[in-house]
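Support reply, case 0932

Customer input (verbatim):
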Amino acid sequence: GMRQQWSVMGAGVALALGAAASFGLVLVWTQHETVGLDGRVRTFFSLLIAACVAIAAIGWQGAAHWPQTTTGWWGLLGLTCLYGSGFTLMFTVLPKLGVASNSAIMNMEPVFALALGWALLDQRIASVQMFGACLVVGSVVFLGLRRQA
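Our regenerated output:
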């Protein structure tokens, strides 16, 4: 029943809610505390924090678990280059466009991930996922129009 379902997925739901709350706090903190800060400094500290979290996770797991195949190594290289350059661009180019644009694009990340998963990995998209994507896009557009008014 329901209790058995929560025993299986409860930890995942709790971690997802924690991640969402953390992401929201980062958005708020970024909007209010880092206005005018040079993009290179923001990028450096973002990557430094990510490195510290990764090192802590490796320590908690006991050792690093490196890719075992060539495809895995290419994936790791691609992730490093694309994600690193994406964050660098976000922190250097987007502040010139305004803080609202920065938040809007960060909120679009799950929609892009959903679309790329469908296009590149042949993943199927459930109707509830499509509804969520429309909700995110609609909210971003609504907030963008509200700020312009």
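We compared this against your earlier run and they match. Two observations from our side: The two ends are 49 Å apart (CA to CA). Residues 24 and 107 are 10 Å apart (CA to CA). Please reopen the case if you see a mismatch on your end.
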